[in-house]
Design a protein that fits this description.
Length: 456
């Protein structure tokens, strides 16, 4: 390995694509393509997690400038439905203004600056509770109280400040820039991920569960804890039985990245070889002393067996399309990150993560988990968000299943990371070249966004 250039080094053992190539139903061609990121091995500055100054740069050049997921379409299904999206010290209101039209406005009354919509709901107009100034759902001015005292208000110039909005896969994105400013469209911003996700019809799903948790840590500290599998052996050792953690494939594109975690194969770090049944029991989270609910038939592998079960489970919702879903899509963990903060898991893995600052704090963050599920018949209403404080476990709402237990393991590290970073005697963090390359790509992306904004 010492003779291999650092940017080409990989863990021994089977790669994701070599495992997937042996499956009965193969995944799409892009899963066999590698797009590694390498721009050197320089340290990541500690100040990016502790500095208020860097946080303010992010706020100005990232959160005020780029496309970001605000909600799902089913959060505003009917004309008049509203949803509030807050980021840092900014607030936006998402409105279904017509049957096929969603708009987004700065959530601010043009009169005295009060937050216009305090609670989401169904509204005929957008009325400020302070003095009663009112706007139509399309943002045009509808009513000025004591109009005789405001001869200087011209209706056409007093509309709400509208920002850019678009929809992809049932997710509503906003870009906090004026609608007439133009610039990069959402489709252009997303790039190749649109084609990657096309077969999975995310727009046909619904929010089955939604949980948000506050952390005493910078938002990037929380997000980066979910951008690599290097931590599995230390944090989730039970997963090593059936997850090729250090054999994960990491790919980085312009505005997104992904991690392809091979399952049905043990970690190369194990000093023993588990059976197919032992890997299945790890996948099902069967505890010591419990009886496994199912046995793998003789001659079957975990991958092929899990794929058969997965297709059968999908068939009621997607019909014969289930036959074309690859083994890898049904068993492997395929996590994407749309920068800066949105993590939709691919295929029919239901989890979707979002990370953002908690209010305007650079040392508190919110992580949200949604389970986005297929359904039969009429789309169910989206689950209401259950909020958790810093000391409350993900398992408390009892809606996330095994995901909640895994997240509780992750959470043990996060607050301690921020404590360590505050007291760090070093100026930079020495991350790995490949296994943490998505984090390196993330910081290179931040640098470019901030530099481009400062040049302007």
């Amino acid at each position: 390995m010492q003779d291999v250039p650092v940017h080409l080094r990989r863990s021994p053992g089977p790669s994701f694509k070599s495992i997937a190539a042996k499956d009965a139903v193969l995944p799409a061609a892009h899963f066999f393509e590698e797009k590694p990121f390498f721009e050197g091995t320089q340290d990541i500055p500690v100040s990016r997690y502790t500095s208020r100054e860097f946080f303010d740069l992010e706020k100005e050049h990232v959160w005020r400038q780029v496309w970001q997921m605000a909600c799902r379409e089913e959060h505003v299904p009917v004309v008049g439905d509203t949803y509030i999206y807050d980021i840092c010290d900014m607030s936006f209101v998402i409105v279904r203004s017509a049957e096929n039209t969603i708009r987004a406005f700065w959530n601010v009354c043009n009169h005295r600056g009060r937050q216009l919509v305090s609670q989401p709901g169904r509204m005929k107009v957008l009325r400020c509770p302070f003095h009663g100034f009112t706007w139509n759902l399309d943002g045009s001015l509808a009513f000025v109280p004591t109009e005789w005292d405001f001869p200087h208000i011209e209706g056409d110039d007093f509309g709400l400040h509208e920002v850019q909005v678009d929809v992809w896969g049932g997710f509503v994105f906003i870009k906090p820039r004026p609608v007439d400013e133009g610039g990069e469209t959402l489709t252009e911003y997303l790039g190749e991920i649109v084609d990657h996700f096309a077969p999975w019809h995310m727009e046909t799903r619904f929010v089955e569960a939604h949980v948000a948790k506050v952390f005493n840590a910078n938002w990037k500290v929380v997000e980066e804890a979910f951008m690599e599998s290097f931590h599995v052996a230390g944090t989730h050792p039970q997963q090593m039985v059936r997850l090729g953690d250090v054999n994960t494939q990491y790919d980085c594109y312009e505005n997104f990245s992904r991690a392809l975690h091979p399952s049905g194969t043990p970690s190369p770090l194990l000093n023993w070889v588990p059976t197919e049944q032992e890997m299945l029991e790890s996948l099902l989270d069967v505890r010591e002393g419990e009886e496994a609910p199912v046995q793998i038939p003789e001659g079957e592998t975990l991958r092929s067996f899990a794929a058969q079960i997965g297709r059968a489970a999908l068939r009621p919702a997607i019909g014969d399309e289930a036959d074309a879903v690859s083994d890898a899509e049904l068993i492997d963990a395929m996590e994407y990150t749309i920068l800066p903060n949105f993590h939709p898991w691919a295929s029919y893995q239901r989890a979707v993560y979002r990370f953002r600052p908690h209010g305007d704090s650079h040392e508190q963050a919110v992580m949200e988990v949604m389970l986005i599920s297929p359904f039969e018949g009429e789309r169910p209403a989206p689950a209401k968000c259950a909020w958790l404080g810093v000391d409350e476990p993900w398992t408390k709402p009892d809606v996330l299943g095994i995901t909640g237990r895994i997240l509780d393991q992750d959470s043990t590290n996060i607050a301690k990371l921020q404590v360590g970073l505050r007291s760090a005697p070093i100026a930079g963090l020495r991350m790995s070249s490949y296994q943490e390359s998505r984090i390196r790509h993330f910081h290179a992306w931040l640098e470019k966004r901030i530099a481009a904004g400062e040049v302007k």
